[in-house]
Protein: Cyanoglobin like protein
Amino acid sequence: MNTETKKPSLYERLGGVYAIAAVVDTFIDRIMVAPELNANPLVDEAHHRVPKAGFKYLVTEMVCQVTGGPQRYTGKTMAESHKHLNISASEWVVFAGIFKAVLDEYKVPEAEQAELFAIVGSTRSDIVVERPVSKAG
Ligand code: HEM
Structure:
């Protein structure tokens, strides 16, 4: 028997579009100036080229959709918008750390954070460019 049919969606538990947009607002402000991310010149160039308001709009739309909200994401696929940036596994870790710090600041409970990280993690292979391990000698 399913006793969880009435559980509110992750979107509702996060507080809907206003709460999600506030988190995205802070998060994008933080990542666009993160020195560890902008050490990658391709990321640095894009972070200084892409207008912040539109970037926040698209990320908000996406987070709302994947958490069960009524919004529909209208941007590019994750592969299309990231493959040219040559994002490394360690840059991914920095990005995830900033995300976690912002979620903590907004007091998003651990259970909701875990659900969000599962969704975010599912996009990793579209975003991170795996570099072959060089065989010295
Ligand atoms: C789950 C993780 C991520 C999500 C959900 C996400 C989301 C997005 C979205 C929605 C866009 C806009 C797409 C469009 O223009 O239509 C975008 C672009 C971009 N993202 Fe991400 N992103 C993620 C990870 C990362 C990471 C790890 C970095 C940097 C290290 C990064 C840097 C960028 C940059 C620089 C752009 C602009 C690309 C360009 O226009 O040339 N993203 N991302």
In short: The pocket of protoporphyrin IX containing FE is lined by residues 37, 43, 46-47, 50, 58-59, 62, 75-76, 81-82, 85, 87, 91-92, 95, 120, 123, 127 (CB under 6 Å). Residues 26 and 129 are 26 Å apart (CA to CA).
